[in-house]
Design a protein that fits this description.
Strand order of the largest sheet: 6-7-8-3-9-10
CATH architecture of the largest domain: 3-Layer(aba) Sandwich
Radius of gyration: 25 Å
CATH topology of the largest domain: Rossmann fold
Largest sheet: 6 strands, mixed
CATH superfamily of the largest domain: P-loop containing nucleotide triphosphate hydrolases
Shape: globular
Order of helices and strands: EEEHEEEHHHEHEHEEHHEEEEEEEEEE
Helix content: 10-25%
Strand content: 25-35%
Number of strands: 20
Distance between the termini: 28 Å
Number of domains: 2
């Protein structure tokens, strides 16, 4: 679940036509030996965002991050940071810091020496370096660790030192390359919240690369979902999850039931879809712009699919099947229901009672139903 904004009534900058983006990529393309790794990517990222580039390995997200950092040059396109064209600016002259997956700490240096390294290279006065390092040690909750070496730190502590080393230079942009990949699940979840809180305090724009959809959904103001070098959809975690713009996006983010069918009728507030997987037609209030008679898919998230032992009333949005499997996850159970058509539909049910007390068990005949607003029509 995404960390919700504290100012829900405030217009976000990407929703404000007068707001100017802080980081802009214009038609960025990168080829390696004729293979296109980044394909005509144009993005607008706003000041103070924690923007995530999300996608599978090899989709081009890390290459795009390295182009932003200046470690790779683009084949074509331009990059602007705070209104300045940075396309041909070398990495060491860009107002950018990077946090690597491996943290890249100097093993022979102490924590405070690692954090101070960039400031020393810039020729800052010793007194100012000491004050700034102390301030960022406090920010990342590493006071008392100043004299330790990296091999004396846990994975989470190393990650905080690497972040402090990037923050201490007060760049305009911080890039994070899979920053939590080396941490175990519980520590990763805790560190996600810490990173978001730190980013909100300092107000610096973060761009993060991740292949972990849960991580991106939890931390990001917005997500750019990539595949084969292209950006498929940009939106808030809620927009990406609730209103995917394609079957690929719907499948990549979370679990989804996809009913292939034909758009039979368009009414003022809904469309009616005939699917071979269902006995009943689908009545959907959220529709892509497709013509009557078109082949489409209807996406419905498992948590929106309700289960009952009695037949629902009405002529739309329900079907029947047999419980083939139940996956118990503690707080929820995922029911696998096989329809007469052979399709398996997933329904996520909150465990409000103990397993032995639940009404629906393996091999039960059940009915599945959902509301018209729970479906999304996707063009094929």
């Amino acid at each position: 679940m995404a960390i919700q904004s504290k100012h829900l009534s405030t217009l976000e900058p990407w929703q404000d036509s007068k707001a100017k983006p802080y980081v802009v990529t214009k038609n960025i393309t990168k080829s390696f030996d004729g293979r296109i790794a980044v394909n005509d990517v144009s993005l607008s990222i706003y000041k103070g965002e924690l923007f995530s580039l999300l996608g599978r390995s090899g989709c081009g997200k890390s290459t795009l991050l390295r182009i932003l950092a200046g470690f790779e040059s683009s084949t074509s396109g331009r990059i602007f940071i705070d209104g300045t064209d940075m396309t041909d600016t070398p990495a060491y002259k860009r107002p950018v810091s990077m946090v690597f997956q491996s943290y890249a700490l100097f093993p022979h240096m102490t924590v405070e020496q690692n954090i101070a390294f960039g400031l020393i290279q810039e020729g800052m006065q010793k007194g100012e370096i000491k004050d700034r390092v102390s301030a960022y040690l406090e920010l990342v909750q590493m006071i008392g660790y100043e004299k330790r070496k990296p091999d004396q730190l846990s994975g989470g502590e190393k990650q905080r030192v690497a972040l402090a080393r990037s923050l201490v230079k007060q760049p305009k942009l911080i890039l994070l390359d899979e920053p939590l990949a080396a941490l175990d699940k519980k520590l990763r979840e805790r560190t996600q919240l810490e990173l978001v809180n730190i980013q909100e305090k300092v107000g610096i724009t973060f761009v993060m690369v991740s292949h972990d959809q849960e991580e991106a959904m939890t931390m990001s103001t917005r997500i750019g979902l990539m595949n084969e070098g292209r950006i498929l959809q940009v939106g808030s975690p809620t927009e990406i999850y609730e209103y995917p713009n394609s079957k690929y996006v719907a499948n990549f983010i979370g679990s989804v039931n996809l009913f292939d069918g034909i758009l039979m009728e368009e009414q003022s507030n809904c469309v009616i879809v005939k699917s071979g997987a269902m006995e009943k037609h689908l009545y959907v209030s959220h529709s892509a712009s497709v013509a009557v008679g078109a082949q489409i898919s209807v996406a419905i998230r498992p948590e929106k699919v309700m289960l009952t032992l009695t037949q629902p009333k009405g002529e739309y949005n329900w079907t029947s099947g047999v419980v083939e499997d139940i996956v118990y996850l503690g707080d929820v159970s995922i029911y696998h229901v096989r329809l007469q058509s052979g399709m398996v539909v997933f329904s996520t049910v909150t465990n409000l009672v103990r397993v032995a007390e639940r009404l629906i068990q393996w091999d039960d005949k059940v009915f599945l139903y959902w509301k018209p607003e729970n479906g999304i029509v996707l063009a094929i």
